[in-house]
Amino acid sequence: MHEPIITVLGGDGIGPEIMAATRQIIQAAQQVTQVNYHFVPMAFGGCSIDQFGEPLTDALLAQVKRSDAVLLAAVGGPKWDHYDVRPEAGLLGLRAAMQVYANLRPTKITAAAVKRSPLKAEIAQNTNFMIVRELTSGIYFGKPRHYAATQAVDTMAYARNEISRIITYAFQLAQQRDRHVTVVDKANVLATSKLWRDVAEEIHPQYPEITLDFEYVDAAAMKIVKSPQQFDVIVTSNLFGDILSDEAAAITGSIGTIPSESISENGPNLYEPIHGSAPDIAGQNIADPIGMINSAVLMLQHTFNDQATANVIERAMVAVLQQDQPVDLGGQLSTTAFTQRICTQIQQNS
Ligand code: NAI
Ligand code: MG
Question: What number does CATH give the domain 1-99+266-350?
Fold first, then answer.
């Protein structure tokens, strides 16, 4: 096999800080496991607008095609808010071009996180669910779409095959978990949601060991904070998944720790933390890199099947977190201090 190629997109705000941290940690770990990952950093988002006038260049798309995986931090910031093209448009363009149709966002409350959760311990504990968010269709992509001072239009549209591939993915994922799938929709109002229900009912008989239920998105939003243990796999549309996954992240205590993985049918997968570019804390060396590091761990496990390097990183991070934590988790560690401790821990373990 050729040397694995990872396109790294640091992006904007805290993005470059947490990406530098993650690369340093992978580099320390690969010295232990003797694997060689080849990183190709590229400009993406606001920094690409500054350099090339557009958030997503053809050169980047060509590079992505040559990659085995794409690791992305975050893009955006107030600087570009009033530009004609925004960094976030690059993000949608990248997801569409890569056809990463399923975005997986785990919400798992560990014993340590129970203390940080804004929920009562008895509600928070044992929470462990996965949101499977449809990522390349729905209202973020639907046409017509236009803006005028008197009326603005967005369109929510789903084709049957777009729904069936993500529902199938959710059933297959549930087979490796607690065998329960919840489709979250708004079928009492939306036509697209009715099609989601019909398709889920149609596919369900192929997975008789999986239990299937349906929740309206408003009720699901409530249940995520009232009884999060009831969920195993939540599968939902682009918009609902975006909103519910931030809510789910909040119950773990910090948005800074949660990774995501976006699956493509035949190209490289995309790995990114779920938070944004956090312009409010950019440049202060207090960003939490855990969500970015965990995204890299998912990449090592799922794209490269490299459990050894993933383990080295996870073990070292757990050991460091037992001593002190990044600032958003209530600890004292700056981004660079946390990173340095993990690298030192990796070297000591080896
Ligand atoms: P955000 O996730 O960047 O920040 C929300 C809050 O969480 C802020 O107080 C921030 O300081 C904190 N936070 C986020 N990540 C953190 C980390 N790793 N460590 C410590 N604290 C952290 O969301 P916000 O403020 O709504 O958006 C900021 C910019 O990011 C906007 O331009 C938005 O469009 C963009 N964005 C980009 C995303 C991406 O690149 N995938 C996703 C979400 C937002
Ligand atoms: Mg979001």
Answer: 3.40.718.10
Q: Measure CA 208 to chain center.
A: 29
Lining residues, ligand 1, CB within 6 Å:
14, 74-77, 88, 91, 255-256, 272, 275-281, 287-288, 291, 328
Instruction: Decide if 293 contacts 313 (C-beta within 8 A).
Output: yes
**Common-topology check for domains 1-99+266-350 and 102-257:** yes
For residue 60, give the nearest of 257, 263, 270 by alpha carbon: 270
Assess: ipTM above 0.95: yes
pTM value? Answer: 0.92
Atom of ligand 1 at shortest range from CA of 246:
2
Fold of the domain spanning 102-257:
Isopropylmalate Dehydrogenase (3.40.718)
Ligand nearest to the backbone CA of 243: 2
10-residue mean pLDDT profile of the chain (350 residues): values are 91 98 98 96 98 98 97 97 93 94 93 87 95 96 96 98 98 98 98 98 98 98 97 98 92 89 95 96 98 97 96 96 93 98 93
Extract the tokens encoding 93: 């363009």
